[in-house]
Each structure stands twice: as C-alpha cells, then as structure tokens.
Write a structure and sequence with these properties.
The structure holds two protein chains of two kinds.
Chain A (H helix, E strand, L loop, with lengths): L1 H13 L8 H11 L5 H13 L4 H44 L3 H19 L1 H8 L8 H11 L5 H22 L1
Helix pairs in contact in A: 1-4, 3-4
Chain B lengths: L1 H17 L3 H16 L5 H13 L4 H16 L4 H30 L6 H24 L3 H4 L6 H19 L5 H15 L1
Classes of the chains: A mainly alpha, B mainly alpha.
C-alpha cells in the first residue's frame, strides 16, 4: 500500500504541464519497474481514461489503484496524485495574495497573461486533428466556440448538447440506412 | 460561508462530471462558471492561475480547483483558514465524479467501450471539445489581459507581440511552456 502511495505521489509531483506529460512516467513506474500492469492493459486504460470526463491523471490513478487494491487502493492512489499539487498550490495561494499588488509582480504578470492566452490557443489545431475535424464537421467546433464566446453559454451545456446531438444524429442516420 | 462552500462543491462536481478532453478544455468550464457565472474572480486573476498551474507540477484541473477554492472564500472576506477548507472542498468535488465513474467502468463497462451508442455520442462531442478550447482562449482576450489601443497603446502592442512570440515558440519551435512564461515575465518587467 505504501508503495502505491509513494509511486503516485511521485507521479503527481514530477509532471509539469498536464496529464499527457504523465504517460511516460506512469509507464516507466507502473509497467517497467513495478510490473503492476502489462503494457497492453495500460494502453487500454489510457484509451478509456481519455474518453471519460475528469482529470486524466486522476482517472488513470483511480483505475490502477482499484485494479490493484480495490476501493482502498483507488482512494489512496487518488489522494497521492492530488496531494502534491494541492499542497504546492495552497502554499502559493497563501503567499501570492500578499505579493499580487507588488508593482514588479504586477508588471511580470502583464507580460505573462498574453503568453498564457497563446498557450491555451496553441493546442487547438493539434486537438482538431486528433478529434478528426474535417470539412463536414468543422461547423461543430465553430458553433461551440460561438455559443460560449459570443453568446455566453456555459461550456457544460455545450458538452451536453454535443453528446445528445451526436447520439440523435447517429440514430437518425442508422434509421435511414 | 456555507452557501459558498455548497456552490463550490456543486460547481466543481459538474466540472468534474462534464470535463471531457483534458486540462485545457476543463479550464474553459472553470472559466465559464467561476469568472463568467459566479464572479468569484476576475479574468486577469483567472489568467494568473493558469500561468501558475503551467509552472507548477500536477494536473491543471487539481491546481485550478485548489486555487479557486481558496480565492473564492478569501475573496468573499473570510480568513485564510476557511480558504484552505474551500480548496479541499473544490478539489474533492472535482475528483469525486471521476472516482465514481472510473470504478463503475472498471467493474462493468470495460466491455462497452466500443459500443455504437458511445461512438455516436463522441462523434459530436470530440469536435465540440476543440471549440471549448478555442473559446477558452478567445474569452481571455480581454482589455484586462491585453489593455486596448486607446487606453494604453504601449501595453496593448507589447501584449500583442508577446502573444505572437509565445504562439510561434510553442507551435513551431516546441519551446517548453515554463520557459515561455519565464521569458514573458522578464519582458513584462522590462517593458510594461
């Protein structure tokens, strides 16, 4: 149990830049070092965890923890993955509120903010290719963007609508054939 | 106080439940609820959190939930100790749907992952998530983050240049986000 905790704690601690950066580390630890899973099992898990909602790294931890030690394993793995970021961000939040009004910090952040917008925009095209966006369905991301950005819809409703829309469209198309 | 905690829980539970497509897509939901709907923080505060999340380890969703939980409570005038409780509630709430879903899936649904209904739902959902991401970026292109040509032309045009620099560096030169943020912080210190 302690091994499970320390492994996922390390995975949570050493991945910078989000879920996908974690895959090589999880593979090295869980498959090559500890032999908890086969490589094929891990690939299956990744595929399922990607198509599920929620935080990718947490989804993977819950899966592996549950597979190894049931409910207790899942709880422990989740806690271990979330704990490093929780503690680090809490420390920053406690201190940052004091520094935020400092003129130098403010100037640095004036430079950082436009860069962050670019960093969020950058993966749009890569994700578009991964989601197989083509000239027939390009209207879906465009409509989603406009609903949220121009009309102020909550992204939650957009996700719900898209899921239902895809299902209904699939049913109608199948009926015609 | 209790009402903010309940709202935090409910908001982050929904974000955990409908957050398809990874960290950045989830950011669009957090922004929609936390900045757009509840006004727990401003657009520039939200952008700062994203920057901090990029530079610190761990999943962006956890980082954002922890930070928003803290800020929404202390921003309403409560003591930092209650802010820690807010962090814990938001983080727990964003993880809870994954926890339930993953366990149900690993017990029963692994066999259904290629089921036609699941496929149909995803034929529109996947492209829509791309739109979520684009909207997240567009919603952050505000006067708060970029200033305006009339209000402060210098800050506006420097911001536009920084934006273009970051976009080119990350897409074409594959520079690490941490390095980009650090460089832009220096640029901000020197120029703004």
């Amino acid at each position: 149990m302690w091994q499970l905790f320390s492994t996922f704690f390390r995975i949570g601690l050493f991945t910078i830049g989000g879920g996908y950066a974690m895959i090589p580390l999880i593979e090295a630890k869980v498959v090559d070092e500890k032999h908890w899973l086969s490589r094929e099992d891990l690939l299956d898990l990744i595929a399922v965890a990607q198509s599920c909602p929620g935080i990718f790294a947490i989804n993977i931890s819950i899966f592996i923890g549950y597979k190894l030690r049931g409910m207790r394993g899942a709880t422990l793995a989740t806690l271990a993955t979330a704990l490093p970021s929780f503690l680090i961000i809490l420390t920053i939040a406690l201190c940052f509120t004091r520094f935020r009004d400092n003129i130098y910090v403010e100037r640095a952040f004036r430079g950082i903010r436009p860069a962050v917008v670019a960093l969020i925009l950058a993966p749009v095209f890569k994700m578009g290719r991964m989601a197989k966006v083509n000239r027939h369905n390009i209207w879906i991301p465009i409509v989603a963007t406009l609903l949220i950005w121009a009309l102020g819809f909550s992204p939650i409703y957009v996700v719900l609508l898209a899921g239902i829309g895809g299902y209904v469209y699939g049913q109608v198309k199948d009926d015609k054939i | 106080m209790i009402s903010i905690l309940i709202l935090l829980f409910w908001t982050f539970f929904q974000i955990g439940l409908f957050g398809f497509g990874g960290g950045y897509a989830m950011l669009s939901m957090i922004q929609g609820e936390v900045v757009g709907h509840y006004h727990w923080m401003t657009t520039s505060q939200f952008t700062d959190i994203v920057a901090i999340s990029q530079m610190t380890p761990g999943p962006i969703g956890i980082n954002a939930a922890t930070y928003v939980g803290y800020t929404s409570i202390t921003g309403a005038g409560y003591a930092p100790a209650w802010g820690i409780l807010g962090s814990a509630v938001a983080t727990f709430a964003v993880v809870l749907p994954s926890f339930i879903l993953m366990i149900v899936i690993s017990r029963f649904l692994m066999a259904y992952k290629n089921h036609p209904t699941v496929e149909q739902v995803f034929t529109w959902l996947r492209p829509a998530v791309v739109g979520l991401l684009a909207a997240a970026a567009l919603c952050l292109m505000t006067p708060e983050n970029f200033s305006t040509p009339t209000e402060c032309p210098w800050q506006f045009w420097v911001s536009v240049l920084i934006f273009l620099f970051a976009l080119v560096s990350v897409t074409i030169y594959k520079m690490s986000p941490i390095r980009i943020i650090l460089l832009c912080a220096v640029a901000g210190l020197l120029l703004m």
